[in-house]
Amino acid sequence: MQTKVEGLAPLEGWDRRPKPSSPELELPARPVWNWEELNAKFRPRLVAAGVIRFGLSEDDCEAAAQRVFLKALAMNPRVRDPRAFLRAAFLEQCFRLLGQRDEP
Amino acid sequence: MKRDEIFEALVDSEIEPAAPRAEFGRTLPFVRTRVPLEDIYRLSVDAEKPAELVLKAARSGPDELAAAMRALDGKPYRGFALLYAAQKGTTLVGVDPRRALALAQAIHEEAGSLAEANRDARATTPAPRQAVQAESHLLESQALVMMGDFMAARAAVTHARALFVEAGDLGFGSALCDYFEGEAATLGREYEAAEDLIRNALRTFEEFGQDHFLARSEAALGTILENRGEHADALGYFDRAIAHFDSEKDARALTATLSNKANALAQLSRFDEARATYARAMNIALRNESVAQLRYIRTGLAELDFLRGQYARALRAFREIAAESATNGSALDVLFARLYVAECLGRTGQFDALAAEVDALRRDRKQTVFSPSPALGELFVCLDQGTIDADLVAHVREYMQDEENGIERMYQPLRLVG
Questions:
Q1: Could you identify which of B98, B256, B304, B388 might form a hypothetical disulfide with A10, taking C-beta atoms 3.0 to 4.6 angstroms apart as the criterion?
Q2: Nearest CA in chain A to B222
Q3: CB-CB contact of A16 with B404 (8 Å)
């Protein structure tokens, strides 16, 4: 058979060395986000969920939301589903805040 | 990262959850001011075009790149522009890894003057030095992988990992590091480490709901299994990857994964399915005019004909592949195609043509820089002795393919003694 699998050679000029499975990330353009919806509607939902579910202060949750939105913007070309990213990152921040609160 | 069903339900509820208002005492609460997100979002949007210009300049050369960097001086979006240029630099890696490496180094240097990351969640810095430099190391790693320096690529990821932590990573940066280091480890044939790294990445990408990265991780795990010869197990990973890829946005990765799946099916002698899978890959590659992918797929299809004993068809295909590879492929592409041509000639009883093909290969070899090969040595000696046949060509080709696939073994001569 042709040199193994790694023939995964989607790159021009790449010879028959072993190949990665997906060497080139395709980032053709900035993904289209509905920023208005994310910022005006989704962010307050995250903050409220953080307050209700974990008993965190609104200020802490606002700060956490700010942080995860900044991280999403920093990863913008790579983030195709911003809601999923923000939700997971915000939850992680809530757990982190809970951990800090429980520290003696 | 944990999941929390109640949290999920609150976020997804049809009625917007309302947080209870805090009871305040007689004094007004202290409110910390934060930069409005809207302003930061605008900065990130403003940075898009300049980031593209940096990338374009990097394609042109060092002077243009330096000028593009100077054009960012004093601009409020400079951090985001450098960050996005590093991320978008991945598209330069396949075309010109050296320039991608130069871009990574330039971004790393430029980022030295950016604001430091602030670990206090209340005063987070947009696009801080550490985040930009972490991205520059990821780009460096991809360029080094492309240049074949897998150890250095993994070392670059180690730097990126530390910088992501300093920048207050939420887990996604670490997953990117795992993914890229896993890819480098795969290419360095360190499959155990690669599998651990990519499984870690896959978990995080799944949690963050980024299907395209999830698909890439599945495809990477399939590749590792395929490299280990676990073809049947690899198929499941390839199928999951294919299901998660977007056929438009991930066209190249999807084509590569389909090709790998076809290769695995061929290894399992499931030739009809392999042909259908190659055909699907070819459709996408044709649409995207990807020359290298098309050549890989056509080689796979020719090998299918060969494996099925359809030597006349395989001969025509390998001749075309050899001719095209001679002008726009690698020397090894040419070598393997010509060995197949010689073998097909032998299998169809065209012994004079077989000898002529191997003789032509020897002449080419004298003009090309190759490392000495005992296998080709035996082939050429047997050509002179008149003992060459298709079995010997197959013996030589299989040894050389194993060598290319990293399987180290002593060459056992088929005809020559001692």
A1: B256
A2: A21
A3: yes
